[in-house]
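User: Show me a protein chain along with its predicted structure.
Assistant: Here is one chain, sequence first, then structure tokens.
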Amino acid sequence: KNINFIVDACTYILSALLVLSVKKTTQQINQQEQNNSSIKQDDTMINEILKLYHSICEGLTYLLSYQNRSLFIILFIKSSAAISWGLAELLEVEYSSMSNMHQLGNESSTLGYIYASTGIGCILGPILISFLILNNDY
């Protein structure tokens, strides 16, 4: 019965271990930012906004470069899909409450099947897309 909670807890533990395995410390990141930044280290609001603006510009320059075009395409598709799926969450609950959707169980199990199929799509989708991108020359 509680296997879902156990699997969920194991994935959180795995995520925590992966985060802990990151080599850079915050001190190293701060030193790198100080060396690469032309903005003086001031704690004023304007400088913080400028730092954020420069970081966003640097990220966009990286994404829009020719070498990273496939990464930009994936990022654009996933962010667009996130907006759409956020709205679809409302529909999933509504569909699960319809009586003609209860062929495999009640409202809760129907919603569970909808969520499970979404999860399977989230796992298989990137795998299939990576094969498409690796097999095409962009």
